[in-house]
Amino acid sequence: MPWIAIVVGLATGIAIWTVLDQIQTRQVDKIFDQELQIQLDLRARESLIRFDRYLSSYGATTRLLANYRKLSEYLEPLFWSDDEAIDPVIYKDFRPQWLPDFFERDALAPPSHVLLTDPHGRVREIFQAGSDPVPAEMAIQVPTQLLDRHDIRTVIDRLGERLYLITSDAAEDAGGYHMGYLLVLVPVDATFLAASQRGVDVGRASVALVDSDEQRILASLDPSLIPIDSFLSDWSATHVITSQSLPEYEGSDSNLLFATFVPQSRVERMSRHVRIFERRQRFYAAAVFVIVFTGLIYLVSSRLNKVLKRMTRFSQRALGIPEPGFQRGGNQLVLLEDWIQHFTQLVLKAREEMSRRHQAAMRESEALKAAMMEASLDAIVTLDHSGRVIEYNPAAERLFGVGRPFALGAVFVERFLPDVARPAFKRLLDRSRHRHREPLGRGELIALHADGAEIPVEISIAPIERVGERFFTLYIHDISSRKQAEQEIKSLARFASESPHPILRVNAAGLIVYANNASRPLLRAWNADPGEPLPEDWGTAVAAALETAQPLERELEAGGQVYSLLLAPIRDLGYVNLYARDITAVRRAEQESRQHQAELVHVCRLSTMGEVATGMAHELNQPLSAIVNYANGCVRRLQGGQGQPEELVGAMNQITAQAKRASEIIKRLRALVGKQPPARAEADLNHLVREVCSFLEFETSRVGVAIELELSAEAIPVCVDLVQVEQVLLNLVGNALDALEERPESERRLRICTELEDDWAQVAVADSGPGIEPEHLKRLFDPFVTTKEGGMGMGLAISQTIVENHEGRIWAESVLGHGSTFHLRLPLALPVQEGAGTRANVLEPID
Ligand code: ADP
């Protein structure tokens, strides 16, 4: 309620102000007294400074007087004898000519006497300003301590009963000769003090010069107020006195103080004024304070009211507590207490609930931890600060082969680590001490199994701080299998270097980046070392392999050995691996096999020739019989004497022609039978077919079949070993004739066709023989497969070898009971570029 807030605010504000006022008054009095003292000190100091300066100005005036032109002129003709009896001249009623009217114009208090002495200080002339005679101490002889030839002397001293300011300076004549001293005597009295304090605001204060020994007043600014010869103590009750020592003057006998007097009544009046003013100020401040404070209380109260209402609603909704009475109005503070009680109860309840939940969570966490420990694949061991095992999971049991009951309480280092591993473990542990709560970098160690076996492990230590004690949890991972894998990887890495076959790696720039030991012969052949480039042609091959991403195979002869190199590009990594294989033996075997094959072919040919030979013999018979007939005819004619030379010549020519024919036949036979190295030449396939047919003329007529030739109109160029291809054709036609013999003569037909198809030269030998059993057909080209009595079964096998050597193909088609067709296909001879090769061994046509 607002009025309660206002009353409370006012009461509190007034109470606070009353307390503060009390404290403040005391503080203000203290400050005021200090400040007053400072002010008085300052004023006193100012008075003294002014007084001191005032004295100095007399020094300057004396110097002016001593240097007055008329004085030096006055002194010029004078001579003061030492012996002379002194009788000073006294000017009483008028000013001497050597003294200007300086003081009358100046603000300084006028001197009572001005003295002129000789150099010994004997007084020669005196100017007396008033009625007072010159003090006796100065009448005849001036004390020498008051004189200084080189500097001005200023002294305050007591002469008789009075204080005087005495200033002196040396006086010279116009020629600069030291003639003596000029002294100015000024009585230090009220006039003097008043003049010295002119311009200083001393207020109602008074100043005086005091004898410091007797504490007696010698000169006073206001003698009626502070009389001369009174004592300082007389005034201490009524005045605030600040006394300061006066600078001592050389030659002075007096020990003087400069005292400032401020009447006590005046100080008190000032203090009263200040206090009244300050109290009024404080009252205004207090009024503002009370108003602001009341306003503040009012604002806080109304705000609190709102907050409490909100809190009530909140507590009602959130916690379901009954609505406290303050919602219906009433004393806010009492209601607040009510509410706080409710709140405290709720807090207690909540604390209990939280504690219950915390315990449940702890139990869960413990269960979770236990489950984790159980399920962990890694060994987990917890050590106390002395390194003894206090926790040990099943994985640790498995790893170390030590049961939990035996492990708990054991010193970990002694029980589970061999001697060699202990220093490293200690280092890890020490590091963990310095990195509080942070997991460590891992370390690899050797641990000890119960059976004495050493197990490589990776270990990491996590320090745990709990209730001021430090524990360490070790996570231990068995790395035996990893170590083994590493070993295997290492051994695999040596794989290439251990290979007995050359293995090299070449980068995209053609540089050899790796070569194993076995590669030495290759490097020698290339004249290159690892780090150097491959020869140009090999570099090109490497680039080609990388570009196409296709492996390439090339051969290299090095040190008498033949190597087959597989260039395997690894395109994404930008290099090519070269795997080489020594194929010298393979090549040699191939060579030998080729030789054997050639021999076999030859043997086979001989066997074929056995069959052909009969025909050939028959063929040879004809020219030979003709020769014999012609020769016999000639002989008979010559013996009968009837032979005309023309007839004889004709017969002889016939003999020659027949002999040539016989010779041709023998030549061809020899070509077939002869053992020649395989050599290829270009020929017309049609021509070869005709040739073979002519060999077999005898055979065909024996079998009673005429070969039907269906040769292509144009020549079919092939580049083949002529003898070998003729052998194949002889074999095919020979087999066909053999097959036809099994058929009645009327059904025997033999047809040879040639044709040019795409890039292939083709020959087909078709017969109307009995055909071939399908089972037999499959194995027809296998060696030693024959159905003939006395047959070798090698003809077709050799034919297939020959054809395949020519990159061709041979195959058979057969319909049982209707005949067989053997197909032969050879690659066409490529058109030869001019000058690029030879067309050697082109057979001359036989006929
Ligand atoms: P050989 O003639 O010594 O038996 P080949 O290898 O020349 O050896 O022939 C193997 C076999 O193939 C022959 O024994 C024969 O049974 C069969 N053969 C070959 N050509 C024909 C053919 N034109 N008709 C039927 N059978 C054939």
Write structural notes for this entry:
The protein is of the alpha+beta class and 847 residues long. The chain folds into 7 domains: 2-34 and 268-314, no CATH class; 51-194, Beta-Lactamase (2-Layer Sandwich), CATH 3.30.450; 319-361; 376-483, Beta-Lactamase, CATH 3.30.450.20; 499-582, Beta-Lactamase (2-Layer Sandwich); 584-676, Helix Hairpins; 678-847, Histidine kinase-like ATPase, C-terminal domain (Heat Shock Protein 90). The chain contains 22 helices and 27 strands. The strands form 6 sheets. A 6-stranded mixed beta sheet has the order 1-3-2-6-5-4. The chain has a 5-stranded antiparallel beta sheet with strand order 12-11-15-14-13. Strands 17-16-20-19-18 form a 5-stranded antiparallel beta sheet. A hairpin with a 5-residue loop joins strand 5 (162-172) and strand 6. Helix 1 (2-66) packs antiparallel against helix 6, helix 16 (584-640) runs antiparallel to helix 17 (645-673) and helix 20 (722-740) runs antiparallel to helix 22. It binds adenosine-5'-diphosphate. Adenosine-5'-diphosphate is lined by residues 731, 735-736, 739, 767, 769, 772, 780, 785-788, 791-796, 820. Residues 615-830 form the Histidine kinase domain. Keywords: ATP-binding, Kinase, Membrane, Nucleotide-binding, Phosphoprotein, Transferase, Transmembrane, Transmembrane helix, Two-component regulatory system.
